[in-house]
Amino acid sequence: MNPSGNSCGSFPAASPFAPVAGPIVRSVTDPFHGDLLEVSMGPQHPSTHGVFRMVATLDGEQIVKLKPVFGYLHRNHEKIAENTSYLASMPYTDRLDYLCSLSTNWAYAFAAEKLLGQPVPDRAQYLRIILAEMTRLVNHSCLVGFLFNDLGTSFTPLLYAFREREKIIDLFESLTGSRMMCNYQRFGGCRVDPTPEWLEAARKLVENFPRFLDEYERMLTGNEIMLARTQGIGRVNAAQAINAGLTGPVLRASGVDYDLRKVDAYGFYGRMDFRVPLGDHGDTYDRYMIRILEMRESVKILAQAFRDLPAGPIMDPKAKQRGHRPKAGEAYGRIEGPKGEIGFHLISDGSPNPYRYRVRPPSLINLTLLEDMCLGHTLADSVVILGSIDIVLGEVDR
Amino acid sequence: MEMNASDIKHTPFPAAGTMTDAEREELRRHGILLTSLEELYNWGRSNSIWPIQFGLACCAIEMIAAATARFDIARFGAEIFRPSPRQADLMIVSGTVTKKMAPLVVRLWNQMPEPKYCIAMGACAISGGPFKQGYNVLKGIDRFLPVDIYIPGCPPRPEALLNGLIQLQEKIKGEKLTGPNAARHVRSDVNNEHPIPEYGAHDLVPSKNTALWSPPASPTT
């Protein structure tokens, strides 16, 4: 440590752990202040949700600067997709956001269908809504569990979340054949038609889900430690959130009414009756409550989708199954994933492979405000703030 | 039975070595437990494996699922996930190892004290898996670490991880403490630290640890 805070003696300069040079946000002039301390958290750290690294500069316990470092899980998704056919990228989209493979599948299918001009039958549209909303239930309940892990509850809420997750994942497995990597959507529809028994089991599960939410909330929401650790922590106002391009629950916690399910009304969301929960303060607590309220709205959407699900084909009979060769052009398809706007930008030059394949990852863009959220708070709070943003490193680094 | 010096040289545990299982079982029924130190030591170690809490990618979610109530890795004594490598016995490489991450994985391995074991969980950790073509993806962690158990799958189910753990327990139970086939952690002639690769212009330098891994022989030769 030295007062300028720009070097951290014990590491050789060539080491990947060497501190990153840059201006310090606040210079220390008061002789009673201690030295600034640079702390590198991650990539192996239980609270960084995967291989994410934060380089925090601390004044005492307060964070005066925070630099996120990522790329530890850069798996070349976009480059690999540009070298294979359109359909072959579908399994890779499962592995982008590995908690919500079915939502990401839909976003990719949506972009490719736009590019191909491919219509989708009604039953498939409803099935997509059903599976995407069930994915939202999985994602949000696990997120809340992980958030409380970061608050120091050491696994208990996560055990409840994973109990529910296993029930939903079992349904995914019986429908698609895989627990996590479902690979379910196709261009022009879905891959397999659920049986009436599956639909009945899913309907029952969703019907009972609010009971789990009540149990979860009774345990967590009013907890004093939770309130003290989250209210007023990591605040983001609406202007900041819009300027940084935040989307999803993190944006809506700041009070901005922007949900693609309402704005674009893609798929058949225009036919669904649901509300968009909004936060007031944009703090960690609001971001937690938004998730709980969104799950309750998802249950409503699911009930309507099960009620209205029509009979019919799940795949457009004229749709090409493989060897897609879209005309030269470009398309951007986006949906409201559990973490925010997940979009795919495809540029075709008429060949069987996309000329350019670009993912708009909500996790990465929501992460851009991490430093602003953390400044002035303690290191322990930065962990909770990171948890409340809800990142998945597969999507951040791609 | 009489024993001479040459017998002892060949059987390191003469008491255990000359009794049949039936005789030991007979003694056990009378309340006398006869075992060898080796067996007792390995039995204890194999039932309290502490993995390092270290998730890389998708497989980490299934690793967490294995620790939750439904699969309950605690039944096998391996539920204590340690965030510090200094307290861990087992590294579960759960996910894609990129070239940016590989030096850190090797560093963590070096920081773990012996006896230590490595499980390569999932296709990516075994061979690069679906991302093998990627320019930034390491084609298998066994290029840098001595892997004990490989668990295929993308991602493997939690049951598969449990099965891998049981296989590892069997392996630990068969380890020798003395003799020419002694386990790595009791030998002084084996170097347990592996060199940490550095970031080169195009690839890791060196791109593999030749002491551990060599490319498979071509089928034509």
In short:
Chain A has helices at residues 77-82, 90-94, 101-116, 122-153, 156-176, 196-220, 224-230, 238-243, 249-252, 260-263, 284-308, 362-366, 370-374, 379-389, 393-397, and strands spanning 36-41, 53-59, 62-69, 185-186, 189-190, 329-337, 340-348, 356-360. With 398 residues, chain A is of the alpha+beta class.
Describe this structure in words.
The complex is a heterodimer of chains A (398) and B (221). By secondary structure, chain A is of the alpha+beta class. Chain A has a single domain, classed as Cytochrome-c3 Hydrogenase, chain B. In chain A, 44% of the residues lie in helices and 12% in strands. Chain A has 15 helices and 8 strands. Chain A has a 3-stranded antiparallel sheet with strand order 1-2-3. In chain A, strand 6 (329-337) and strand 7 (340-348) form a beta hairpin. In chain A, helix 3 runs antiparallel to helix 4 (122-153) and helix 6 (196-220) packs antiparallel against helix 11 (284-308). The two termini of chain A are 35 Å apart. Chain B is mainly alpha-helical. In chain B, the strands form 2 sheets. In chain B, strands 1-2-3 form a 3-stranded parallel sheet. Chain B has a two-stranded antiparallel sheet with strand order 4-5. In chain B, helix 6 (102-111) links the parallel strand 1 and strand 2 (117-121). The interface between A and B is large, with 35 and 38 residues.
